[in-house]
Write a structure and sequence with these properties.
Layout: H1 2-45, H2 50-53, H3 56-64, H4 71-102, H5 104-119, H6 126-133, H7 137-161, H8 165-173, H9 178-189, H10 191-215, H11 221-230, H12 234-267
C-alpha cells in the first residue's frame, strides 16, 4: 500500500515538474513573439522609427539575402574566433589556477595583480594587442582570451581553495601526493564550478571577439555592425545584433549539453 502511494506521489511530482517546464517554455516563446509583434506593428504604424530600429520583416529580408552580403562567412568567422579564444582561456585559466593552488606563495603574490587585471577594461588594451600581435584574427582572439582568462583563473582558484578540507586530509592520510590529490579530489570536486565558469566565459569570449572586430577586423559580425552603422544600413546592424544574440544562446546551450554529458558520465562511474 505504501509503495503504491509513493509511486503515485512520484508520478504526480514528475507530471507537475514537466507541466511547469512546459508552461515556462510557452511563456518564454510568448514573450519573444510579443516583442517581435510590437516591434513590427510599431514600425508599420510609425511609433518606431524603422530607419533607426529596422523591423522584423526587413531583418528577415536581410537574412534571406545572405549570399549578397556574405552573412554566413561573417557568422563563421565570429564563431571560430569565439571558440578559439574561449578554449584557450579555459585551458590556460585552469592550468594557471592549478599552479597558484599548488603554490600558496605564488597565489599570494599574484592575488592583487589578478584583482587589478580583472577590474581593468580590456578594451583599453586593444591598441597594445594590435601592435603586439598585429591586426587581424589573431588580435581578435587575444582580445577574447584577455577578457575570459582572468575570470577563469579567479573562479577556478577560489573553487580549488574551497575544496572540502576533510577529503584532502583523508587523501593525505592514505599517502596521496599533491598531484594525486588534485586529480582525484580537488578537480572532480570543482566540476560544477568549472561549468559555471565556462557558462560565464562563453559570453565574455563573445564580447571580446566583438570588441576586437570593432577595432581591427574586416570580417565577422562585429565588423558588419560597425560597417552598417558607418553607411547607415541599420537593417544590417540589427540583423547582425539579432544573429549575435542567437549565436550567444547557441554557444551557451552547447556548454549546457557538454555539462550534462560529462556529469552523467561521472555519475555512472
Amino acid at each position: 500500500m505504501s509503495n503504491t502511494f509513493e509511486s503515485s506521489g512520484r508520478r504526480e511530482y514528475l507530471y507537475n515538474k514537466k507541466k511547469n517546464k512546459i508552461i515556462v517554455r510557452v511563456c518564454q516563446v510568448a514573450v519573444l513573439v510579443l516583442v517581435i509583434a510590437i516591434w513590427e506593428i510599431g514600425a508599420r504604424l510609425g511609433f518606431i522609427d524603422s530607419f533607426i530600429m529596422s523591423q522584423p520583416t526587413r531583418v528577415l529580408r536581410t537574412i534571406s539575402n545572405f549570399q549578397n552580403n556574405n552573412l554566413l562567412m561573417h557568422i563563421g568567422i565570429t564563431f571560430l574566433e569565439t571558440i578559439i579564444g574561449f578554449s584557450l582561456g579555459a585551458v590556460m585559466g585552469i592550468f594557471i589556477a592549478m599552479v597558484l593552488w599548488w603554490s600558496d606563495f605564488l597565489s599570494k603574490v599574484a592575488d592583487p595583480y589578478l584583482v587589478v587585471l580583472n577590474a581593468l577594461p580590456k578594451i583599453a588594451l586593444g591598441p597594445v594587442i594590435i601592435i603586439w600581435v598585429g591586426a587581424g584574427m589573431q588580435a581578435v582572439i587575444v582580445m577574447a582570451l584577455a577578457i575570459s582568462l582572468v575570470v577563469t583563473i579567479m573562479e577556478m582558484l577560489n573553487g580549488f581553495k574551497n575544496t572540502d578540507t576533510e577529503l584532502i586530509k583523508m587523501a593525505k592520510t592514505f599517502g596521496a601526493g599533491k598531484l594525486q590529490t588534485f586529480v582525484k579530489i580537488v578537480f572532480p570536486f570543482n566540476l560544477a564550478t568549472l561549468f559555471n565558469c565556462l557558462k560565464i566565459n562563453i559570453g565574455l569570449s563573445l564580447v571580446g571577439v566583438i570588441a576586437g572586430e570593432f577595432l581591427v577586423s574586416r570580417a565577422g559580425l562585429g565588423y558588419l555592425i560597425v560597417y552598417g552603422g558607418q553607411v547607415f544600413q541599420m537593417d544590417l546592424v540589427m540583423t547582425s545584433v539579432i544573429i549575435l544574440a542567437a549565436l550567444a544562446a547557441l554557444l551557451y546551450r552547447l556548454i549546457v549539453l557538454f555539462e550534462y554529458v560529462v556529469m552523467k558520465a561521472v555519475s555512472n562511474k
